[in-house]
Amino acid sequence: MILAAREFGCVVSGVDYSADPIRAAQAVTEAEDLCDRVDFVRGDAEALPFADRSFDVALCECSLCTFPDRERALAELHRVLRRGGRVAITDVIADRERLPGSLRGALAEIACVGAAPSADGYQRLIERAGFKLLAAEERGADAAALAQRVEDRLRGARLLGWADSPAFPGGVEEAIELTRVARQAIAEGSLGYAIFAASRR
What we know:
The chain has helices at residues 2-8, 19-31, 70-80, 106-110, 119-128, 140-159, 172-188; strands at residues 12-16, 38-42, 55-61, 81-94, 131-138, 191-200. By secondary structure, the protein is an alpha/beta fold. The two termini are 24 Å apart. It is globular, with a radius of gyration of 18 Å. Strand 3 (55-61), helix 3 (70-80) and strand 4 (81-94) form a beta-alpha-beta unit. 41% of the residues lie in helices and 24% in strands. The chain has 7 helices and 6 strands; from the N terminus they run H-E-H-E-E-H-E-H-H-E-H-H-E.
């Protein structure tokens, strides 16, 4: 969002359900002197605090799989876009039938894995919401690189003695093992990452 305003001069509005990310984003916006083009508000993706047909473009980055009602969230994106407006959705994709059991539990859901639809599942959701799918691109190499970075950071946290940190509800060792299993699932093709682009009809 801030990148779009800084690099392309876009006027943007960001939404998050929690107050802390909003405060952090606003601090960056102020530090970069972009307050005239960037605004962040607290809100629910399933009831966006914007008027009908008020945006040309919408971005939903790595979050749709975490929403309780994805169809409602996509309907809201459709509502706030002008006719012909574009939406880009990036998210984790999963073939749940092939996922190991440890990637279908509560901790995996927190990590955006356990409840992720398949690529086909996302496409069906997007089209049912009234969008015309323009492109879908699976990015397995990006998913593998991200999982490796997460595992490296978790191992670093263990070396620093943060094994009992509240940031790791099941403990850092469980988080490392979950990441290792995720990396294997990515290599086998049952877990990944994808980008979808669509236009509002």
